[in-house]
Amino acid sequence: MPRDYYEVLGVARDASEQEIKKAYKKTARKYHPDLNQGDAGAEEKFKEASSAYDVLSTPEKRRIYDQHGHEGLNSRGFESNFHDMSDIMSMFGDMFGGGFGDFFGGGRGGGRGRRRGSDLEYRLKISFIEAAHGVTKAIKVPRGVHCDTCSGNGLKPGAKPQTCGTCRGQGEVLQAQGFLRIRTVCPACRGRGVSTRPEDHCGDCSGTGKVRRTEELKVKIPGGSYSGLQIRHTGRGEAGDAGASTGDLYVTLQVTAHEMFKREGADVYVTVPVPYPTMCLGGEITVPSVHGEESLDLRPGTPSGDVVIMRGLGVPELRRRGKKGDQHVRLVVDVPTRMGEEEDELIRRLAELQEASVPRKGFWKELLGKLNT
Protein backbone atom coordinates (compact mmCIF):
# COMPACT_ATOMS: atom_id res chain seq x y z
CA MET A 1 0.00 0.00 0.00
CA PRO A 2 1.50 3.41 -0.96
CA ARG A 3 2.37 5.82 1.83
CA ASP A 4 0.02 8.65 2.77
CA TYR A 5 0.61 11.49 0.30
CA TYR A 6 0.49 14.18 2.99
CA GLU A 7 3.17 12.27 4.88
CA VAL A 8 5.30 11.95 1.74
CA LEU A 9 5.39 15.74 1.26
CA GLY A 10 5.43 16.51 4.98
CA VAL A 11 2.38 18.79 4.95
CA ALA A 12 -0.85 18.98 6.95
CA ARG A 13 -4.11 17.70 5.46
CA ASP A 14 -5.43 21.26 5.27
CA ALA A 15 -2.30 22.57 3.54
CA SER A 16 -2.84 25.23 0.88
CA GLU A 17 -1.93 24.81 -2.78
CA GLN A 18 1.17 27.00 -2.32
CA GLU A 19 2.31 25.02 0.72
CA ILE A 20 1.97 21.76 -1.22
CA LYS A 21 3.88 23.17 -4.17
CA LYS A 22 6.66 24.49 -1.93
CA ALA A 23 6.97 21.17 -0.09
CA TYR A 24 7.13 19.23 -3.34
CA LYS A 25 9.83 21.48 -4.77
CA LYS A 26 11.93 20.96 -1.63
CA THR A 27 11.48 17.17 -1.70
CA ALA A 28 12.07 16.90 -5.45
CA ARG A 29 15.31 18.89 -5.16
CA LYS A 30 16.53 16.59 -2.38
CA TYR A 31 15.87 13.32 -4.25
CA HIS A 32 16.36 14.44 -7.86
CA PRO A 33 18.10 11.61 -9.81
CA ASP A 34 20.67 14.00 -11.34
CA LEU A 35 21.80 14.88 -7.84
CA ASN A 36 21.74 11.27 -6.64
CA GLN A 37 23.37 9.31 -9.45
CA GLY A 38 23.04 5.56 -8.97
CA ASP A 39 20.84 5.87 -5.87
CA ALA A 40 17.76 3.76 -6.66
CA GLY A 41 16.19 4.63 -3.31
CA ALA A 42 16.37 8.36 -4.04
CA GLU A 43 14.78 7.84 -7.45
CA GLU A 44 11.87 5.95 -5.89
CA LYS A 45 11.34 8.72 -3.34
CA PHE A 46 11.47 11.24 -6.17
CA LYS A 47 8.74 9.34 -8.04
CA GLU A 48 6.71 8.96 -4.85
CA ALA A 49 6.85 12.70 -4.19
CA SER A 50 5.84 13.42 -7.78
CA SER A 51 2.83 11.11 -7.48
CA ALA A 52 1.83 12.81 -4.23
CA TYR A 53 2.06 16.26 -5.83
CA ASP A 54 0.11 15.16 -8.90
CA VAL A 55 -2.81 14.12 -6.67
CA LEU A 56 -2.72 16.84 -4.00
CA SER A 57 -2.32 19.67 -6.52
CA THR A 58 -5.42 18.60 -8.50
CA PRO A 59 -8.64 19.60 -6.65
CA GLU A 60 -10.77 16.69 -7.90
CA LYS A 61 -8.11 14.06 -7.22
CA ARG A 62 -7.38 15.56 -3.79
CA ARG A 63 -11.06 15.51 -2.81
CA ILE A 64 -11.41 11.83 -3.82
CA TYR A 65 -8.15 10.96 -2.05
CA ASP A 66 -9.24 12.73 1.16
CA GLN A 67 -12.51 10.77 1.19
CA HIS A 68 -11.46 7.35 -0.07
CA GLY A 69 -7.65 7.17 -0.14
CA HIS A 70 -5.58 5.37 -2.77
CA GLU A 71 -8.29 2.82 -3.57
CA GLY A 72 -10.75 5.61 -4.31
CA LEU A 73 -8.38 7.06 -6.93
CA ASN A 74 -7.79 3.71 -8.60
CA SER A 75 -11.48 2.79 -8.72
CA ARG A 76 -12.27 6.03 -10.53
CA GLY A 77 -9.66 5.68 -13.26
CA PHE A 78 -7.13 8.10 -11.72
CA GLU A 79 -3.72 6.53 -11.76
CA SER A 80 -1.76 8.07 -8.92
CA ASN A 81 1.67 6.78 -10.01
CA PHE A 82 3.80 7.58 -13.04
CA HIS A 83 4.94 4.93 -15.49
CA ASP A 84 8.45 6.34 -16.00
CA MET A 85 10.66 9.39 -15.52
CA SER A 86 9.46 10.92 -18.78
CA ASP A 87 5.96 11.29 -17.28
CA ILE A 88 7.45 13.28 -14.41
CA MET A 89 9.37 15.45 -16.88
CA SER A 90 6.10 16.19 -18.62
CA MET A 91 4.49 17.17 -15.33
CA PHE A 92 7.33 19.59 -14.63
CA GLY A 93 6.78 21.22 -17.99
CA ASP A 94 3.03 21.53 -17.39
CA MET A 95 3.11 22.66 -13.76
CA PHE A 96 6.33 24.63 -13.41
CA GLY A 97 6.72 26.12 -16.87
CA GLY A 98 9.78 24.27 -18.12
CA GLY A 99 12.04 21.25 -17.87
CA PHE A 100 14.27 20.18 -14.98
CA GLY A 101 16.67 23.06 -15.59
CA ASP A 102 13.97 25.68 -15.27
CA PHE A 103 12.54 23.97 -12.19
CA PHE A 104 15.80 23.97 -10.26
CA GLY A 105 17.10 27.28 -11.61
CA GLY A 106 19.46 27.60 -14.53
CA GLY A 107 19.26 26.32 -18.07
CA ARG A 108 20.05 23.09 -19.79
CA GLY A 109 20.70 23.19 -23.48
CA GLY A 110 19.53 20.53 -25.87
CA GLY A 111 16.38 19.43 -23.99
CA ARG A 112 13.92 22.26 -24.12
CA GLY A 113 12.70 21.48 -27.60
CA ARG A 114 11.67 17.92 -26.81
CA ARG A 115 7.98 17.76 -27.36
CA ARG A 116 5.66 15.69 -25.24
CA GLY A 117 3.51 13.19 -27.14
CA SER A 118 -0.05 14.14 -28.02
CA ASP A 119 -2.99 12.91 -25.97
CA LEU A 120 -5.47 10.52 -27.62
CA GLU A 121 -9.19 10.08 -27.12
CA TYR A 122 -11.05 6.81 -27.62
CA ARG A 123 -14.87 6.86 -27.59
CA LEU A 124 -16.19 3.65 -26.07
CA LYS A 125 -19.86 2.68 -26.30
CA ILE A 126 -21.26 0.57 -23.46
CA SER A 127 -24.76 -0.53 -22.48
CA PHE A 128 -26.88 0.95 -19.71
CA ILE A 129 -26.48 -2.18 -17.57
CA GLU A 130 -22.69 -2.29 -18.11
CA ALA A 131 -22.45 1.30 -16.94
CA ALA A 132 -24.58 0.51 -13.90
CA HIS A 133 -22.57 -2.49 -12.73
CA GLY A 134 -19.12 -1.76 -14.15
CA VAL A 135 -17.30 -3.82 -16.74
CA THR A 136 -13.84 -4.44 -18.18
CA LYS A 137 -13.53 -3.86 -21.92
CA ALA A 138 -10.69 -4.70 -24.29
CA ILE A 139 -10.03 -2.00 -26.87
CA LYS A 140 -7.51 -1.63 -29.69
CA VAL A 141 -5.78 1.73 -29.95
CA PRO A 142 -3.61 2.73 -32.93
CA ARG A 143 -0.86 5.10 -31.83
CA GLY A 144 2.67 6.24 -32.54
CA VAL A 145 5.35 4.51 -30.46
CA HIS A 146 9.12 4.80 -30.35
CA CYS A 147 10.89 2.80 -33.01
CA ASP A 148 12.47 -0.35 -31.55
CA THR A 149 15.40 -0.22 -33.96
CA CYS A 150 16.64 3.25 -33.00
CA SER A 151 14.98 3.55 -29.56
CA GLY A 152 13.24 6.66 -30.75
CA ASN A 153 16.26 8.78 -31.67
CA GLY A 154 15.73 8.39 -35.43
CA LEU A 155 19.32 7.28 -36.12
CA LYS A 156 20.57 4.07 -37.64
CA PRO A 157 22.82 1.88 -35.44
CA GLY A 158 26.23 3.47 -34.87
CA ALA A 159 25.23 6.93 -36.07
CA LYS A 160 25.46 9.92 -33.78
CA PRO A 161 23.70 13.28 -33.87
CA GLN A 162 25.70 16.38 -34.74
CA THR A 163 25.78 19.57 -32.72
CA CYS A 164 23.41 22.08 -34.28
CA GLY A 165 25.42 24.68 -36.18
CA THR A 166 22.78 27.36 -35.74
CA CYS A 167 22.54 27.40 -31.94
CA ARG A 168 25.80 25.51 -31.21
CA GLY A 169 24.00 22.99 -29.08
CA GLN A 170 22.20 25.48 -26.84
CA GLY A 171 18.73 24.88 -28.29
CA GLU A 172 18.12 28.63 -28.28
CA VAL A 173 19.08 31.62 -30.38
CA LEU A 174 19.05 35.37 -29.75
CA GLN A 175 17.09 37.55 -32.09
CA ALA A 176 17.43 41.34 -32.16
CA GLN A 177 14.37 43.52 -32.62
CA GLY A 178 15.45 47.12 -32.35
CA PHE A 179 16.87 47.63 -28.88
CA LEU A 180 15.43 44.33 -27.69
CA ARG A 181 17.18 40.98 -27.71
CA ILE A 182 14.79 38.02 -27.52
CA ARG A 183 15.82 34.45 -26.74
CA THR A 184 13.78 31.93 -28.77
CA VAL A 185 13.83 28.22 -29.59
CA CYS A 186 16.29 27.42 -32.33
CA PRO A 187 14.35 27.06 -35.60
CA ALA A 188 16.91 24.67 -37.10
CA CYS A 189 16.87 21.97 -34.39
CA ARG A 190 13.58 22.89 -32.68
CA GLY A 191 15.42 23.38 -29.40
CA ARG A 192 17.10 19.97 -29.28
CA GLY A 193 20.61 21.33 -29.79
CA VAL A 194 21.50 18.58 -32.28
CA SER A 195 20.88 17.81 -35.93
CA THR A 196 21.12 14.66 -38.05
CA ARG A 197 22.24 13.94 -41.60
CA PRO A 198 19.74 12.24 -43.94
CA GLU A 199 22.16 9.36 -44.53
CA ASP A 200 22.20 8.64 -40.77
CA HIS A 201 18.42 8.28 -40.49
CA CYS A 202 16.96 4.99 -39.26
CA GLY A 203 15.53 3.01 -42.15
CA ASP A 204 12.62 1.56 -40.20
CA CYS A 205 11.13 4.89 -39.13
CA SER A 206 12.67 7.16 -41.82
CA GLY A 207 14.35 9.21 -39.13
CA THR A 208 11.19 10.16 -37.27
CA GLY A 209 11.91 7.90 -34.30
CA LYS A 210 8.30 6.68 -34.32
CA VAL A 211 6.23 3.94 -35.95
CA ARG A 212 2.50 3.22 -35.95
CA ARG A 213 1.28 0.30 -33.90
CA THR A 214 -2.10 -0.97 -32.75
CA GLU A 215 -2.10 -2.08 -29.15
CA GLU A 216 -4.76 -3.83 -27.08
CA LEU A 217 -5.67 -2.30 -23.75
CA LYS A 218 -8.08 -3.41 -21.03
CA VAL A 219 -10.25 -0.59 -19.70
CA LYS A 220 -11.73 -1.02 -16.23
CA ILE A 221 -15.05 0.86 -16.10
CA PRO A 222 -16.39 1.46 -12.58
CA GLY A 223 -20.03 0.84 -11.69
CA GLY A 224 -22.09 4.02 -11.85
CA SER A 225 -20.31 5.36 -14.94
CA TYR A 226 -22.14 7.75 -17.22
CA SER A 227 -21.94 9.25 -20.72
CA GLY A 228 -19.08 11.73 -21.00
CA LEU A 229 -17.02 10.20 -18.21
CA GLN A 230 -13.33 10.09 -19.18
CA ILE A 231 -10.97 7.41 -17.89
CA ARG A 232 -7.33 8.45 -18.15
CA HIS A 233 -4.54 6.00 -18.98
CA THR A 234 -1.19 7.66 -18.40
CA GLY A 235 1.46 7.09 -21.05
CA ARG A 236 -0.89 5.39 -23.53
CA GLY A 237 -1.06 8.27 -26.01
CA GLU A 238 1.31 9.25 -28.81
CA ALA A 239 5.05 8.92 -28.20
CA GLY A 240 6.91 12.20 -27.79
CA ASP A 241 10.38 13.13 -28.99
CA ALA A 242 13.24 11.00 -27.70
CA GLY A 243 13.63 11.79 -24.02
CA ALA A 244 10.21 13.43 -23.74
CA SER A 245 7.15 11.88 -22.14
CA THR A 246 4.39 10.00 -23.92
CA GLY A 247 0.91 11.50 -24.10
CA ASP A 248 -2.10 10.09 -22.30
CA LEU A 249 -5.13 8.18 -23.53
CA TYR A 250 -8.57 9.38 -22.50
CA VAL A 251 -11.36 6.81 -22.88
CA THR A 252 -14.64 8.72 -23.17
CA LEU A 253 -17.74 6.69 -22.37
CA GLN A 254 -20.97 6.73 -24.36
CA VAL A 255 -23.80 4.91 -22.57
CA THR A 256 -26.67 3.68 -24.74
CA ALA A 257 -30.26 4.31 -23.64
CA HIS A 258 -32.32 1.50 -22.09
CA GLU A 259 -35.82 0.67 -23.28
CA MET A 260 -37.15 0.40 -19.73
CA PHE A 261 -34.89 2.25 -17.30
CA LYS A 262 -34.07 5.94 -17.11
CA ARG A 263 -31.41 7.47 -14.93
CA GLU A 264 -30.68 10.72 -13.12
CA GLY A 265 -27.38 10.62 -11.28
CA ALA A 266 -27.35 7.42 -9.23
CA ASP A 267 -31.17 7.13 -9.16
CA VAL A 268 -33.05 4.87 -11.59
CA TYR A 269 -36.61 5.44 -12.83
CA VAL A 270 -38.95 2.77 -14.20
CA THR A 271 -42.66 2.63 -15.05
CA VAL A 272 -44.48 -0.61 -14.17
CA PRO A 273 -48.00 -1.48 -15.44
CA VAL A 274 -50.14 -3.17 -12.76
CA PRO A 275 -53.50 -4.99 -13.24
CA TYR A 276 -56.50 -2.93 -12.09
CA PRO A 277 -57.66 -5.46 -9.46
CA THR A 278 -54.22 -5.42 -7.80
CA MET A 279 -54.23 -1.63 -7.70
CA CYS A 280 -57.66 -1.76 -6.04
CA LEU A 281 -57.17 -4.65 -3.63
CA GLY A 282 -53.41 -4.53 -3.06
CA GLY A 283 -51.00 -7.43 -3.35
CA GLU A 284 -47.48 -8.45 -4.23
CA ILE A 285 -46.04 -7.62 -7.66
CA THR A 286 -42.69 -8.26 -9.33
CA VAL A 287 -40.69 -5.17 -10.25
CA PRO A 288 -37.68 -5.09 -12.59
CA SER A 289 -34.49 -3.37 -11.42
CA VAL A 290 -30.92 -3.05 -12.72
CA HIS A 291 -30.00 -5.71 -10.13
CA GLY A 292 -32.71 -8.22 -11.12
CA GLU A 293 -36.34 -8.80 -10.19
CA GLU A 294 -37.61 -7.50 -6.84
CA SER A 295 -40.88 -8.00 -4.95
CA LEU A 296 -43.05 -5.05 -4.00
CA ASP A 297 -46.19 -5.06 -1.80
CA LEU A 298 -48.91 -2.65 -2.93
CA ARG A 299 -51.37 -1.19 -0.47
CA PRO A 300 -55.09 -1.41 -1.32
CA GLY A 301 -56.34 1.54 -3.32
CA THR A 302 -53.04 2.45 -4.93
CA PRO A 303 -53.77 5.27 -7.42
CA SER A 304 -52.45 5.15 -10.98
CA GLY A 305 -49.32 7.27 -11.26
CA ASP A 306 -48.25 6.63 -7.68
CA VAL A 307 -44.47 6.48 -7.19
CA VAL A 308 -42.81 4.05 -4.79
CA ILE A 309 -39.14 4.54 -3.86
CA MET A 310 -37.09 1.38 -3.41
CA ARG A 311 -34.00 2.36 -1.42
CA GLY A 312 -30.56 1.23 -2.57
CA LEU A 313 -31.70 -0.27 -5.87
CA GLY A 314 -30.13 2.43 -8.02
CA VAL A 315 -26.57 2.46 -9.39
CA PRO A 316 -23.35 3.00 -7.38
CA GLU A 317 -22.30 6.56 -6.66
CA LEU A 318 -18.83 7.17 -8.08
CA ARG A 319 -17.81 9.61 -5.37
CA ARG A 320 -19.27 7.74 -2.41
CA ARG A 321 -17.85 4.26 -2.12
CA GLY A 322 -20.40 1.60 -1.18
CA LYS A 323 -23.33 3.99 -1.63
CA LYS A 324 -26.07 3.38 -4.21
CA GLY A 325 -28.92 5.50 -5.44
CA ASP A 326 -32.61 4.60 -5.24
CA GLN A 327 -35.10 3.19 -7.72
CA HIS A 328 -38.28 5.19 -8.35
CA VAL A 329 -41.15 2.94 -9.47
CA ARG A 330 -44.10 4.66 -11.13
CA LEU A 331 -47.21 2.45 -10.98
CA VAL A 332 -49.83 2.75 -13.73
CA VAL A 333 -52.97 0.77 -14.47
CA ASP A 334 -52.45 -1.96 -17.05
CA VAL A 335 -55.45 -1.54 -19.37
CA PRO A 336 -56.08 -4.63 -21.56
CA THR A 337 -56.54 -3.90 -25.27
CA ARG A 338 -58.68 -7.00 -25.85
CA MET A 339 -61.19 -8.65 -23.47
CA GLY A 340 -63.29 -11.80 -23.59
CA GLU A 341 -67.09 -11.92 -23.24
CA GLU A 342 -67.01 -12.68 -19.53
CA GLU A 343 -64.50 -9.93 -18.81
CA ASP A 344 -66.61 -7.46 -20.76
CA GLU A 345 -69.72 -8.29 -18.74
CA LEU A 346 -67.87 -8.01 -15.42
CA ILE A 347 -66.42 -4.61 -16.34
CA ARG A 348 -69.88 -3.35 -17.34
CA ARG A 349 -71.35 -4.61 -14.08
CA LEU A 350 -68.60 -2.76 -12.18
CA ALA A 351 -69.33 0.40 -14.18
CA GLU A 352 -72.99 0.19 -13.16
CA LEU A 353 -72.07 -0.21 -9.49
CA GLN A 354 -69.75 2.78 -9.67
CA GLU A 355 -72.25 4.74 -11.82
CA ALA A 356 -69.59 5.19 -14.46
CA SER A 357 -70.77 6.33 -17.90
CA VAL A 358 -69.84 3.79 -20.60
CA PRO A 359 -71.41 3.15 -24.07
CA ARG A 360 -73.90 0.28 -24.12
CA LYS A 361 -72.79 -2.94 -25.76
CA GLY A 362 -72.97 -2.72 -29.58
CA PHE A 363 -73.17 1.11 -29.55
CA TRP A 364 -70.23 1.69 -31.89
CA LYS A 365 -71.35 -1.04 -34.27
CA GLU A 366 -74.82 0.53 -34.58
CA LEU A 367 -73.35 3.99 -35.09
CA LEU A 368 -71.05 2.83 -37.88
CA GLY A 369 -73.96 1.03 -39.56
CA LYS A 370 -76.02 4.24 -39.65
CA LEU A 371 -73.13 6.21 -41.11
CA ASN A 372 -72.70 3.71 -43.92
CA THR A 373 -76.35 3.81 -45.02
List keywords for this structure.
4-stranded mixed beta sheet, alpha+beta, 28% helix, 3-stranded mixed beta sheet, 373 residues, 26% strand, single chain
Task: Give me the strand/helix succession.
Answer: HHHHHHEHEEEEEEEEEEHEEEEHH
Number of separate strands: 15
Query: What gyration radius follows from the Cα positions, in whole Å?
Result: 33 Å
**Main sheet record:** 4 strands, mixed
Secondary structural class: alpha+beta
On the 0 to 100 scale, the average pLDDT is 81
Q: DSSP strand (E) fraction?
A: 25-35%
**Span between N and C termini?**
89 Å
Order of strands in the sheet with most strands:
10-11-15-14
Query: How many helix segments?
Result: 10
Which geometry do the CA atoms define? elongated
Note down, in words, how this protein is organized.
It is a single chain. It is built from 10 helices and 15 strands. A 4-stranded mixed β-sheet has the order 10-11-15-14. The longest helix is centred in the first third of the chain and has 17 residues. The chain is 28% helix and 26% strand. The protein has 373 residues and is of the alpha+beta class.
Write the layout of secondary structure elements.
Blueprint (H helix, E strand, L loop, with lengths): L4 H5 L7 H15 L8 H17 L2 H17 L9 H12 L3 H5 L15 E7 L1 H6 L1 E12 L15 E2 L8 E6 L2 E6 L8 E2 L14 E12 L8 E4 L15 E7 L6 E3 L2 E9 H6 L1 E7 L2 E7 L7 E5 L16 E8 L6 H13 L9 H10 L1
Parallel strand pairs: 1-9, 11-15
Antiparallel strand pairs: 2-7, 3-6, 4-5, 8-9, 10-11, 12-13, 14-15
Helix pairs in contact: 2-3
